[in-house]
Amino acid sequence: MSEVKAYGAADPKADLKQINIERREVTPRDVKIKITYCGVCHSDIHTVRNDWGGSKYPVVPGHEIIGKVLEVGSEVSDFKVGDTVGVGCMVDSCRECESCKHDLEQFCEQGMVGTYNGKDKHLGGHTYGGYSEEIIVDKYYVLSVPENLDENAVAPLLCAGITTFSPLNHWKVGKGDKVGVIGLGGLGHMGIKFAHAMGAHVVMITTSPGKAEDAKRLGADEVLISKNEEAMKKHANSFDFLLNTVPVGHDINPYLSLLKIDATMCMVGAVEPLEPVHGGSLIMGRKNVAGSLIGGIKETQEMLDFCGEHNIVSDIEMIDINTINDAYDRVVNGDVKYRFVIDMESLRN
Ligand code: NAP
Ligand code: ZN
Ligand code: ZN
């Protein structure tokens, strides 16, 4: 075992501060990574603040990890020392169940092992994430990063990227579709970029009129202010697909009225109770509400390769780790353009 520096929270009310954590020895299947950048996902904040219950402390968040390979185990041939690699939201799963066999490790029947707050099979206790100097991960869960992408801005693809790419891909969004992305934050801004690159007509649906110009720059063809009832009426029954990234429970009925017959709204944001859904909102138009959780490892690599081809990265604000607590408050207030990424050198210095 080796000790590395990390940033963690001791309880739901505590600020994150520097702590030391243990990392395991490199086993034959492992890749040891020096973390260079780590994105700040709203899920990090939900976990630190125990919004979903069940958080284990200290929480060391971070599941949008980019780094350089420092060492590989004897059975690792796909990665070599010095490679730029990524790690997303999972670091293990059973690899044997139906979900795992179908490249849907996020739905592993034994439970996937989260990059943080998962059950650590090696050291016992729980896993610690990317707000740390180094991480050691089984080769199967390590991703290759296309060389042409700007390394500073690639980390958020590992969660915000795959979480939006996967449902757009699954529901086969493409040319001729009118797609709405609800909520312009970390996930939402990637949703616009992907839907645009897939050829859809993209509408940014936001509560923040001030984000309209950015939405268009990111690839939206139109902007719809969800609080404007008149504007919402004009778009009634017109969408082929909606991607809902709102991070809290809310009233989805107004959004359902935007869907065409048979169309789907996929929830990725609110992992908590929603306000009651009126049966009529679904029945009148045979509409669907669905959900989606990140994406499997194979699809995550496909997403990264798609980003390589289309030169897609995140719009980021780089921060030093000692400003992380302020950054959290800004994310909660919807004030981030559009993903914070921590320069992990700031933890080493
Ligand atoms: P974020 O950066 O905070 O963005 C969320 C955006 O939603 C905000 O910028 C805001 O956009 C809008 N919003 C916030 N509060 C709202 C409210 N009360 N009503 C309507 N809109 C509201 O968060 P994120 O990192 O994108 O994450 C979004 C959610 O997805 C989080 O809950 C996170 O835990 C979850 N998540 C899920 C998965 C998954 O696999 N399903 C993966 C990653 C994250 P506007 O200003 O444009 O309205
Ligand atoms: Zn995330
Ligand atoms: Zn499994």
Order of helices and strands: EEEHEEEHEEEHEHEHEHEHEHEHEHEH
Ligand identities:
NADP nicotinamide-adenine-dinucleotide phosphate, zinc ion
Number of helical stretches of at least 4 residues = 11
The rounded distance between the terminal residues' Cα atoms is: 22 Å
Determine Rg (CA atoms, Å): 20 Å
- How would you classify the quaternary structure? single chain
- Low-confidence sequence ranges: none
Structural topology:
Blueprint: E1 2-8, E2 17-23, E3 30-40, H1 42-48, E4 65-72, E5 84-87, E6 90-92, H2 98-101, E7 113-114, E8 134-138, E9 143-144, H3 160-170, E10 178-182, H4 186-197, E11 201-206, H5 212-218, E12 222-225, H6 229-234, E13 239-244, H7 253-256, E14 259-267, H8 279-283, E15 288-291, H9 297-310, E16 316-319, H10 324-332, E17 339-343, H11 345-348
Parallel strand pairs: 10-11, 10-13, 11-12, 13-14, 14-15, 16-17
Antiparallel strand pairs: 1-2, 3-4, 3-8, 3-17, 4-5, 5-9, 6-7
The chain binds NADP nicotinamide-adenine-dinucleotide phosphate and zinc ion (2 copies).
One zinc ion is lined by residues 41, 43, 63, 89, 159.
